[in-house]
Structure formats: C-alpha cells, structure tokens
Amino acid sequence: MRVGPDGGEAEVLATGAGGVPFNFVNGIDIDQVTGDVYFTDSSVTYPRRFNTEIMMNADATGRLLKYDAVTKQVTVLKDGLPYPNGVAVSYDRTYVVVAHTVPCQAHRYYLQGPKAGHYELLADLPGYPDNVRRDGKGGYWVALNQEKGRPGATTAPVKHLVGVRLDGGGVEVEELTAAKGVTLSEVTERKGQLWLGSVELDYIG
C-alpha cells in the first residue's frame, strides 16, 4: 500500500506476486533513484502471528520481491528463502542486503553487474536479525531481536547484543548492547545519532 505525505486513505498497489498472495510482508526499502520497492514476504505458509512456527519448522518459503515503479508490477527475485526479514538497497544500488532471522545471517542479491541474479552470504550474525539499514558510512546496521546463546556461559549476562554494524564487506565493526530484556527491531543512524525501534515497546529511542 502507498500513503501520501499528508496521510489519507492508503492505495493498494499489489496483493501478490507470481500467482501467490502476499502472506507475511515484512522488510522494505526503496531505491531512491528509480522508486522501485524491494521487500520480503517472510513465509507463504505461516502468517505473522505464527512467526515462531517459521523457525521451529525450518520453513523456507520466504521470498524477496520487487515492485517496479514504472510498470506497477511485482516480480519474485528469489524464493525458497528461510525467514527473510529486513532489506536494504546498497549505496551503489547494485545489490540488496537481506537479513534472515533464521539462520542468523545476512545475504545479498545482486541487481546489476556480472553477478546479477546471484544470491550470496554476506555475514553470519551473532543473533536473530530483524531490520537492516544503511549506516551512512558505507555499511549497515542490523537490529537483533535476540542474541544467540553463548557456548560455555554459566550465568546470564547483564547486557546483551541488540544490534551490530557491518562494513560493506559484511565484517562486524561495531556492537550495540542494552540491558537484558530489551529487544530491537530497528537501528537507524541519522547525523551521528542512532534511532532505535522495538516491536515490544510503545516508543522510539
């Protein structure tokens, strides 16, 4: 759906792709040059309210999709994906980063160049990712809804990971921690400040 800058009634742009209705539309990003929209449908089997079943049953029916701003059509770029979540168009617009909540990874799908159409691992992540956003420095912030368990740990840590910054090559260069019990769904950097969002809280930070 699309809503104008002044609000009002939303306009429905599409309801499905490849003959399959949208079921669990999740992450989204827009190419600021073309207006094309890239987004994920996390599962064609389980709706949002059954998101834990996606992980428990190792569901791999997620899709990466593109809404073409000119043709007004949605195409399936990649299907058969395990829990695709957040997406971010790269700075040079040659690929899209896709966060997979399970198996705790970030991949990239190439849009242009000799690797166009290729899907490859960008980074193994230390937790279960939600959204991914450009950091303004050539890399990406990935929000972590939950940190992975630490092998050998005998006591619960006072703080835990809620986000990581990756450089353009997928190397972790910074960690963001918070008190135990705090979870994030979004980390966005603007003018040197981090804006934080959570699906479990009623405010932003």
TrEMBL record:
Domain of life: Eukaryota
Subcellular location: Vacuole
Domain Strictosidine synthase conserved region: 26-113
SUPFAM superfamilies to which the protein is assigned, alphabetical: Calcium-dependent phosphotriesterase
Gene Ontology cellular component terms for the protein in this record: endomembrane system; vacuole
Major localization listed first in the record, in broad terms: other
This protein's UniProt keywords: Glycoprotein, Vacuole
Entry keyword Glycoprotein: yes
This protein's name: Strictosidine synthase conserved region domain-containing protein
